[in-house]
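> call design_seq(struct)
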């Protein structure tokens, strides 16, 4: 049931509906800018932009930055390899830096802050999304309140059960590495990483599901 709600590959899922609403908000910001527009998508995929309909028109050019370079087919996309914590680009070299559900994966608090600083350094504007730590359903393991359990219990659960997007992982060291590779952020900490911006909250039944930090846009 939880996968049906959270699966971004399922065009009828709640997760995709939220992505579309978020993207509509992003497009409303993008519409203020003169063309051409150059976007750096940190951790992005071609399938995301294709699904959202920004697939080659309107003079919007997108560079995908991932740990490894990927093949792309859309005419407005290029792909490069690099580290979100140390982006190989000059200051303000992109009109917009965009990132969707990546900052929670880059490491500890200081490494997350490094990514945030780099996003704000290389982009004239930014639009960065992350799941809210205090949403009851942890979005990667799809286990209620998983993020608040002691580390040993989280590791034990993954060793013994298939959780969300992760297969059962009997090896303790590997299970621990997986669990520790995700560090969710709450609104206070996330905003502290983007202090000159604003926070947009996505809610379900009044509970914030995810957070978007956006800055550098006129009339936020």
């Amino acid at each position: 049931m939880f996968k049906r709600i959270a699966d971004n590959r399922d065009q009828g899922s709640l997760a995709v509906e939220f992505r579309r609403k978020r993207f509509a908000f992003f497009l409303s910001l993008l519409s203020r800018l003169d063309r051409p527009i150059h976007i750096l998508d940190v951790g992005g995929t071609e399938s995301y932009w294709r699904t959202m309909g920004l697939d080659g028109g309107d003079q919007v050019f997108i560079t995908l930055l991932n740990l490894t370079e990927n093949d792309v087919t859309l005419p407005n996309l290029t792909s490069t390899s690099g580290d979100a914590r140390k982006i190989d680009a000059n200051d303000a070299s992109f009109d917009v830096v965009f990132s969707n559900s990546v900052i929670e994966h880059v490491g500890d608090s200081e490494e997350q802050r490094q990514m945030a600083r780099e996003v704000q350094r290389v982009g004239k504007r930014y639009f960065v999304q992350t799941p809210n730590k205090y949403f009851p359903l942890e979005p990667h393991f799809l286990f209620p309140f998983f993020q608040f359990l002691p580390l040993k219990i989280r590791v034990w659960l993954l060793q013994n059960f298939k959780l969300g997007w992760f297969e059962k992982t009997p090896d303790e060291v590997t299970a621990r590495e997986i669990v520790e590779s995700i560090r969710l952020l709450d609104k206070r900490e996330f905003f502290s990483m983007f202090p000159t911006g604003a926070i947009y909250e996505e809610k379900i039944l009044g509970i914030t599901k995810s957070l978007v930090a956006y800055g550098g846009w006129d009339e936020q």
